[in-house]
Specification:
heterodimer; A: alpha/beta; Arginase, Chain A; eight-stranded parallel beta sheet; six-stranded mixed beta sheet; B: alpha/beta; 15 helices; 27 strands; 32% helix; globular; binds zinc ion
Chain lengths: 436, 557
């Protein structure tokens, strides 16, 4: 019998009774063939590999992470709570010492869900990884976490949530935003003033294959991680870089995904996208599971794999090599705001967000306190085509006393103004999450 | 059952052979003897002779046999050499699943939808067959990945082996379930015990002929069901580890179980535990494991722990424990070490043979450890009870934590709430009060529990379980283990599949000449998924699991 080198927990929740719509890529049978493959391979009989049931996330787990309008119940269904709960289960297994590695093979995905939620964007309502990370920071002493997002689409939701957070490093490898939804994820997007360089984007050209991806891991991601020294590495394990994926244009293979995972060596992986449900997912998931468990994956390969057909163009490697300079520069020499911006004043940023799935348009005004002591209290004014002007206020993890007080003042003023339909408060110091 | 017909149940266990004869009015007679481990046939013959006189023998209509024959052959490694020929395709390296001396991986591959990806290297098969048969290997097993979706390659291997084999076990005939490694192990064991089993079957048939018995003979399986003797010759591996199932089915026959219940079979050295949900014994999610090898053999969910009446009492630095070693027989029965039974005897919860000897033994052990006899006896009993309760709780936890795959099951999943605890076995009465009130359940010690295993064997029904898989794009429908494969129209629906599953199962049951029961056939799982290509639904992927529920043909309540 095969024995796993790493004790591994697999949270498999395919949600066979849930779809966005009958022919939408995010539909019931998305993980059906993956389950067939895993069962036929005898994955669940591997010694040291245990299958677990997901938790069901609670409302407070969502409200600790997101500003939801009108409220958590209004933007989620049970499927979202179970998917996020699957990620939480992975974290609990790891941090309670029951496993060395955990993979939440759950759906629906979450990495396009931003801080403020008015509906569904890019198949996502709430951000599974962020909800998990905030659960970790609330329940355990872990503080420094890195997220490496290997989904083909830029994880603009996760980037948005951690834009101002220097303790969560977000690295995304994705198909260049000029050629794919959601259009963002350029190298120049590198985090807010308090977290400059803690958002790292690696946009790869269409047609990049194993060679290009593994170069990006070896030459960009690993040196950055080595320097950042996270306590936990989370892999947002999207599988739509696969050469057979119907909605993207990359040339990555199952063997490549397994090697990537092996080199990245994440503690937790959470499934994101990936819509080649017959030709890719069964083999990519098998490869990732074997790599995480520390089992030989060299025989994992798609039945139709043809190395010549998916080889990348010569120009791609040159481009990726040039990209290295820029990417490492962002992390190691980020733009500095020192001396340019006075302390205890608000910096503001305007944003427009489009929810493709639900056709919602949202306008945001973010105001963050420039604070020398903590990451700074902040607020988000938001209105959308489905919800009137509202406000979110967050007193962040580890907020200083001044910022905590300021949070209370912001709330009072907002209430008095009578401008807002809903006010969402996230107080990470008192661990209170509520709406007014 | 016609008026004068008799059913004979035989449980040839590791220690004892139990037999019971059941008529219209209930148990007619029973028999118990020590099993002759080296001659199971003799044990069977003696039991039949011992239980039924000449007149009764003529009336025996059905003999159900639970035997350790195959299990022992595997455990003691008395296995025939088997040539295992497999093809795997991409995935985990098949060398990991090597079993036996003659294990060959050949080229060829089928994917999860049953599509042939690479053709089979058939020429190599005949070369291998020629080579190993030169070395005297006559037993074969053919297993290919995803053969339950498309058995073509396994069939081709069998054809290529041809007359070089006395028999070939085909993986897809064992079960419709997915698990390539389990299929390999199960097919290997099946071929490895097949000749032993066949010889045994022949001898039993001769013996019955000798004794003038014309009954149909069935063999008990680990899932609590039976299979006809003739059929079991092809899949003898299904007869492994049927012992615990005999006891469970016995309880089902002796008590009218309709609710969530727990069964404790407290024997000499072990306690076997089973769980009933709404009166039906729970089945293990995957097949049973044997010698650390997971197989595809379906089994009831039972657990065994090393606590029983003859388990030795230990005192270690003030903490008292019981088992898992056998200390017995009890001092009350002339043993030399105080056992759990002695503890019950010493504090007069029961009265068993030489109570004085028990009291003395407990007193001596107490003195040696600076405690009082009563305290020691109490602590030993409490330990045993706690171990059993812990194990039951672990099982209930395991059931509660079983992964589910739909939101509906995640939110509405049924929980087991035991209403009754059935205790059987030698020390059953002694434990009655100890479990009173536990989990809010009522304790029942059924009568005749000492022959429950033989009763269970006698009255167990024939069970069959199938998995239907249909793909309307490929226009195929397959039920691998009963050899059904046909072309379906593109409009084939879930309802069609459920009907086909029921009909095929009924037809197969008919071919086994197993009596049809009323409502004992059930669809356990059924699902239909769209197959979408691009943005259009091009077909349905349909799956139906159907079974004849384990159960008894009549109750003795
Ligand atoms: Zn994606
Ligand atoms: Zn501050």
């Amino acid at each position: 019998m095969i024995k796993a080198k790493n004790r591994m927990g697999l949270i498999f929740f395919p949600a066979y009774d849930w779809a966005i719509s009958p022919t939408h890529p995010e539909r019931e049978e998305r993980l059906l063939y993956t389950q067939d493959q895993l069962r036929e391979e005898g994955i669940f009989d591997i010694q040291g590999l245990v299958e677990y049931k997901p938790d069901i996330a609670r409302e407070e787990d969502v409200l600790r992470t997101h500003f939801c309008f009108p409220d958590a119940a209004g933007v989620t269904t049970e499927s979202h709570m179970i998917s996020a709960g699957g990620a939480i289960k992975a974290a609990r297994l790891l941090l309670d010492g029951q496993v060395d590695k955990a993979f939440a093979l759950v759906r629906p995905p979450g990495h396009h869900a931003m801080k403020s939620v008015h509906g569904n964007r890019g198949f996502c309502n709430i951000n599974n990884e962020a909800i998990m990370i905030e659960y970790i920071r609330d329940h355990y002493s872990t503080r420094r976490i890195a997220v490496v997002d290997t989904d083909c689409h830029h994880g603009d939701g996760t980037q948005d949530i951690y834009w101002n957070d220097p303790n969560v490093l977000y690295i995304s490898i994705h198909q260049d935003g000029r050629t794919l939804y959601p259009g963002s994820g350029h190298v120049s997007e590198c985090g807010g003033p308090t977290a400059a360089g803690r958002t790292v984007n690696i946009p790869l050209p269409p047609g990049t294959s194993d060679e290009g991806f593994l170069y990006a891991i070896d030459e960009m991601v690993l040196p950055i991680l080595k320097h950042f020294k996270p306590e936990i590495i989370v892999n947002s394990a999207g599988q739509d870089n696969h050469y057979s994926d119907p909605i993207t244009n990359m040339n990555f293979s199952a063997q490549g995904y397994a090697m990537l995972n092996d080199r990245l060596d994440p503690d937790i992986a959470v499934l994101e996208g990936g819509y080649s449900i017959q030709g890719a997912l069964p083999y990519v998931n098998l490869g990732i599971i074997l790599a995480m468990a520390g089992i030989d994956y060299s025989h994992v390969r798609e039945p139709d794999y043809d190395a010549a057909a998916v080889r990348q163009d010569k120009g791609i490697m040159d481009y990726v090599k040039r990209l290295k300079e820029a990417v490492l520069g962002v992390y190691f020499n980020p733009p500095t705001y020192e001396g340019l911006l006075p302390y205890r004043q608000y910096l503001t940023r305007r944003k427009n967000v489009f929810y493709d799935t639900d056709g919602i348009r949202e306008t945001q005004l973010e105001s963050i306190m420039r604070c020398g002591e903590c990451t700074g209290v902040w607020s988000l004014e938001t209105s959308s085509t489905v919800y009137p002007l509202s406000l979110g206020i967050e007193i962040p993890v580890g907020a200083c006393t001044a910022c905590e007080k300021e949070g209370g003042r912001l709330l009072d003023n907002a209430k008095k103004s009578g401008k807002y339909k809903t006010i969402q408060m996230i107080d990470r110091v008192k661990k209170e999450y509520y709406s007014r | 059952m016609n008026k004068s017909a008799l059913y004979l149940g035989l449980d040839v266990g590791g220690t004892h052979t139990d037999a019971v004869l059941i008529g219209e009015e209930g148990i007619v007679s029973h028999y118990k003897a020590v099993t002759d481990h080296d001659n199971l046939l003799l044990s069977v013959r003696k039991a039949i002779e011992g239980i039924a006189g000449g007149a009764d023998r003529k009336k025996i209509q059905r003999i159900n046999l639970s035997t350790t024959l195959s299990t022992n052959a595997i455990v003691e490694n008395r296995l025939e050499d088997v040539c295992v020929i497999i093809s795997a395709g991409p995935g985990i390296d098949p060398d990991n699943f090597k079993i036996g001396t003659y294990y060959y991986v050949i080229d060829g591959s089928i994917d999860h939808r049953g599509t042939e990806v690479r053709s089979l290297d058939a020429k190599l098969v005949s070369r291998i067959a020629g080579e190993v048969s030169g070395k005297g290997v006559k037993a074969f097993a053919a297993v290919t990945k995803f053969s339950t979706r498309n058995p073509e390659h396994e069939n081709l291997i069998a054809r290529e082996i041809g007359s070089a084999a006395d028999f070939v076990t085909l993986g897809h005939k064992l079960s419709g379930r997915l698990s390539f490694p389990r299929r390999i192990v199960t097919a290997y064991f099946n071929s490895a015990v097949r000749r032993i089993f066949e010889n045994f079957s022949d001898s039993i048939e001769e013996c019955l002929c000798d004794l003038g018995i014309e009954a149909e003979v069935n063999v008990l399986k680990a899932d609590g069901g039976t299979m006809p003797f003739s059929f079991s010759r092809g899949i003898p591996v299904e007869s492994i580890l049927s012992g615990p199932a005999a006891s469970v089915m016995g309880i089902a026959a002796l008590c009218d179980i309709t609710r969530d219940s727990i069964m404790l079979d407290i024997g000499g050295t072990t306690t076997d535990i089973a769980i009933f949900a709404a009166g039906a014994p729970l089945i293990e999610k995957e097949g049973i494991s044997l010698q650390g090898f997971p197989t595809l053999v379906r089994s009831l969910m039972t657990r065994s722990i090393g606590v029983g009446g003859d388990s030795a009492i230990h005192v270690n630095g003030g903490s008292v424990s019981v088992g898992p070693d056998r200390g017995g027989p009890a001092m009350a029965a002339g043993g030399t070490v105080p056992t759990l039974v002695d503890a019950f005897n010493a504090i007069r919860i029961v009265r068993f043979m030489d109570a004085e000897a028990s009291a003395q033994g407990i007193a001596d052990l107490a003195k040696k450890n600076g405690t009082s006899p009563d305290k020691l006896a109490d602590a030993a009993i409490e330990y045993a009870v706690a171990r059993i309760k812990d194990e039951v709780n672990a099982m209930l936890g395991e059931i509660r934590d079983r992964p589910v795959y739909t939101i509906h099951e995640m939110l509405e999943g049924k929980k087991i709430q035991p209403a009754l605890v059935y205790i059987m076995g030698g020390p059953a009465e002694a434990f009655r009060d100890k479990f009173a009130g536990w989990l809010g359940a009522e304790v029942v010690v059924p009568p005749n529990y000492d022959v429950a295993n033989a009763v269970g064997a006698a009255l167990a029904k024939t069970t069959i379980d199938i998995e239907l898989f249909a793909d309307t794009c490929r226009r195929t429908m397959i039920i691998p283990n009963i050899d059904v494969r046909r072309t379906i129209p593109s409009g084939y629906t879930l309802r069609d599949a459920e009907r086909d599953a029921r009909n095929s199962l009924a037809e197969h049951r008919g071919s086994l000449s197993a009596p049809a029961g009323g409502s004992d056939m059930e669809i356990i799982e059924s699902s239909s998924f769209n197959i979408v290509e691009g943005f259009y639904t091009v077909g349905r992927d349909i799956r139906v699991k159907c079974q004849i529920k384990p159960g008894v043909i009549k109750r003795l309540t």
